[in-house]
Amino acid sequence: MDKNQLAADFKRRVRDNSRTRWIRFGIVSLIFFLWVAWLGNWWVALAWILLFDIYITGYIPFTWWKKSKSAAVRSVMSWVDAIVYALILVYFVFTFIGQNYQIPSSSLEKSLLVGDYLWVNKMAYGPRVPNTPVHFPLVQNTFPIINTKSYLDSPQWKYHRLKGLGNVKRGDIVVFNFPAGDTVALKVQNPDYYTLCKMYGKDNVHANPQTFGEIIYRPVDRRENYVKRAVGLPGERIKIVDGVIYINGKAIAQPDNVQFNYYYQLKPGATPAEIWEDLGISADDRHEVPVTPEDTEALASLGFMVNPDGSVPAVYVSPLTPAMVKSLEENPLTAKVMKVPANHGEVLYPSGVADSWTRADYGELWIPAKGTALRLTPEAWDRYARVIRDYEGNHDATMRDGKVYIGGEPVDYYTFKMDYYFMMGDNRDNSLDSRYWGFVPEDHIVGRPEKVLISFDKDRSLFNGGIRWDRILRDANPDKVKY
């Protein structure tokens, strides 16, 4: 076919389209170019040529199956066509607009409950351009049943966040990729890989795949999703004293739904199930404390009841909000209520530095901020080595003889490339958060939960209170005003 024939064929293809199709193409083109402008990468605009062919010229036979003589082929391919379009739409919505997430743990009770399904707004802080653009949009990192990766390791794109509606503010509940989830032992993912290495030794973890499973690396956007509350912002100093958070030396208000663990004992004849039901304590939080004869004297000195024969009536422990504590203390069936003291010896972040800290008495710790230079003393290296080496991409960074080397060169100061955040759960004594695994880098931020879409109570049957109707379309952060 010569040039004249090609030109004539092109004109015919353009001319044969209906006015309605041109309007549809115009709307799609407008949306596409607005999206390209939002991306800030005009090379992507070249894809418009493909749109033009799909809607107008039709050189690529995407719809070949419509002309098939086989009814079976037309039927099957119509379903394939619909599914592909749906997956493409879901991919773009989930990547750039928002996505639904399920609350799997109780770290934010009572603000968010286990079984809540949330709509997470990715435009709140600006959606990330995917690090792993080739991935299946309906799963995070692993296909269920077949247990294979749901993404391709390449291509890998550098971190880039599009312009959003605002920045992370104190008190925001935030969905983010788990920072310590970069390396994963597939058979034991709780505790995380780094905690396993501290507990059993790195060489032992790697040498025993039958126990710990294969050790793999996951890109930032394919790491597990966590949800916590932002309590410390870039450049601030955080400290916790007796469970109260201090920012730059000033105490911040506790949310109404903050919870701490409490021991409590009921008077003879009281039924704990009724108390648990009245207070709204979930089945997973109803624990009886094992008491030995050696504990009797200590419990008596703390005001717990002891029977004449030396036995101790049941002592329970549960996470309670201030309102729940007050209700329990005022209940005539309650014998004793006491806050559980924090234990020393927990593995907190930064390892070594935090050895004398507890989850209730933590810090002081400075939160890195983009553009801020840090003097690299041995103490600073102990606190920020993981940030500098793993999150900021200086994988060869090391300290030798009291001096930090990056790229083989000695450096006295380091300027951070990203902002970092300190995240905590409202269920303070039952939340694995920044106190345990450190800061959340800005490139791990996914979005902000806006609404509870629906909520299921796993302790009840579907037709006996299993659906929490009062939580449907409820604000996902009712305690934000406290900050």
Automatic annotation (TrEMBL):
Record protein name field: Signal peptidase I
Sequence ranges assigned to domain Peptidase S26 in this UniProt record: 77-257, 419-449
Ranges in a coiled coil: none
The protein's enzyme class: hydrolase
Cell compartments where the protein resides: Membrane
Biological source species: Duncaniella freteri
Gene3D superfamilies, sorted: Umud Fragment, subunit A
Membrane-topology annotation of the record: Single-pass type II membrane protein
